[in-house]
Design goal:
- By secondary structure, the chain is an alpha+beta fold.
- The protein is 17% helix and 34% strand.
- It has helices at 92-114, 206-220; strands at 7-12, 15-20, 58-60, 67-69, 75-77, 88-90, 116-122, 128-135, 141-145, 149-153, 157-165, 175-184, 191-197.
- The strands form four sheets. Strands 10-9-8-7-13-12-11 form a seven-stranded antiparallel sheet. Strands 1-2 form a two-stranded antiparallel ribbon.
Amino acid sequence: MSGSDAKKLVRSPSGLRMVPEHRAARSPFGLDEPPWVPDKECPRCMQCDTKFDFITRKHHCRRCGKCFCDKCCSKKVPLPRMCFVDPVRQCAECALVSQKETEFYDKQLKVLMNGATFFVTLGTSDKSELMVCRLSNNQRYLVLDGDSHYEIEITQISTVQILTEGFTPGGGNTRAIGMILQYKVPGSEEVTQMKFTAGEDFSCNKKLSASWLAAMHKVSK
């Protein structure tokens, strides 16, 4: 894999961040810090329109960069997409989004990095290979290991289609049993397709495979 996974601690006006030493090694799920609305352009809270003065101080939301009073920007919430070490001040709207994303970072990405086993079929081949599929630690690659080895850059994936079974007209439960993935090979406009199928002979891994596929579906969104 290209780049280094080494990280460094940096300080910005928003707080301490633990970021990759090389920009090329950044997670594709990351966000850049927004520019702050200049103080001189913000005489009032951008949410409740309260005028700022010596008592009513202004605060910048670390996610959107807009100006708010303390009442409208009082929550300190984790913001892993910007690599902040500690929870940071955010407006109510941004805090809600960040709280939803925390579950994604705390659970779904860990499921993907732990990996699961699938039968993988490349292109139109009629042969499949048993492979362990996982997200790389730097979150930049989908790594497939079996007799063959593939590293698919997440940013090159164009389509993720989850395959399910068990659907009934009455609205019965469905179960994820596989996935069709389409991606571009770097340096080429050609689109490659892979099909992932959970092995029926590995009943102990069915739940793990289904969880992995569900997490991959959320990543694709």
